[in-house]
Amino acid sequence: MMKGKILISLLVLLSAWTASAQAEENILENAQVAVQFEEQLRSAAKEVLSIYPAVRAELERTLGPDPKLRPVVRLMRTRDSFRKLVDNDLVVALAVPARNLIVIDYSRMNIHPLTLETTLKHELCHLQLHHRLREGNLPRWLDEGICQWVTGGTAEIVTDTSRSALKEAVLSNRFLSIDAMTANFPSGGRELLLAYEESESIVEYIGKEFGPSAVMDLLNQLSEGNDLDGAVEKALGVTLPELERKWRSHLVQKSSWIAYLSGSLYELLFLLAAIVTVCGFVRVMRRKRDYKDEEDEEEGIDKQ
Question: What is the pLDDT of residues 266-276, one digit of tens each?
Fold first, then answer.
């Protein structure tokens, strides 16, 4: 219910914004895509037209063709203009399947690893997934996980590459459950970052554990009208709770050495300090011995 209200509000806001902006908007289009932009972004709009065929072809190699899809890509020139649509500093782009619309904050396309190409591919993936599945039958974690999966891990949010919310969750055993990520994601903060990382991780695990075609098998089951529990069991041969348990166990096993190092950090530091001290002591003793040997040799020469 809450997600529906947010979507309706966003559609109303987009409609009002489109009507007020038409006078100053430019449009470049072809048979596959239309690009709306302010004059200052004309070169960026041309880039979208140029890269779109390859982006779409690459995406369709994974998800299959969607001949009816002809999106409108709206390039926003400033962060402030994008914030009027999305009041979240982490989000840099969004897809609105009900309007076949992609909105991109172009001012943030230079933040690693975000590029116009990967962001366009990510949002186009959202549109294609929602075209393929009926409304309400696409879990949010699967939606975001697949779109990151096909773009090599790139999301539609700005992430802190120096830290991983998922690694912290593994070490502290404080995951977001799959159920908590089915209808919607947290609104912001570390939990939002964790939701994106978990979603990508789950989809990657499905592909590696159950085979390359498992992700598409799951999508096919959902597109046939099965609910999430039934689709998981038919496509993967396990129940949804079993999938979640296996995925978490996989993460814990993979990160066990990190957990060991973290839990033994002080002991390791003390051990390292002790080793350094012993090495220093041995070095000093060697220098004293060498110095004494030199003195003995000099005394022997003087006596001669």
Answer: 555 555 655 76
Angle, nearest 10°, between helix axes 42-63 and 116-132? 50
Instruction: Find the domain containing 126 and state its range.
Output: 14-132
Higher pLDDT, 304 or 42: 42
- The answer to whether position 84 is within a domain reads yes
The residue written with tokens 């969607």 in the block is 66
CB 127 within 8 A of CB 68: no
* pLDDT number for residue 26: 96
Residue 269 lies in a domain: no
The answer, yes or no, to whether residue 16 has pLDDT greater than 70, is no
Summarised one tens digit per residue, pLDDT across range 87-117 is 889 999 999 999 999 999 999 998 888 899 9
Q: In Å, what is the CA distance from 186 to each residue of 55, 109, 196, 262, 293?
A: 29, 24, 10, 28, 72
Query: What would the two tokens of residue 61 be?
Result: 């190699």
The count of domains in the chain is 1
Give a yes or no: residue 27 inside a domain.
Answer: yes
Residue 31 within a domain:
yes
Classify residue 12 by burial, with Cβ atoms within 10 Å: 0-12, 13-18, 19+: exposed
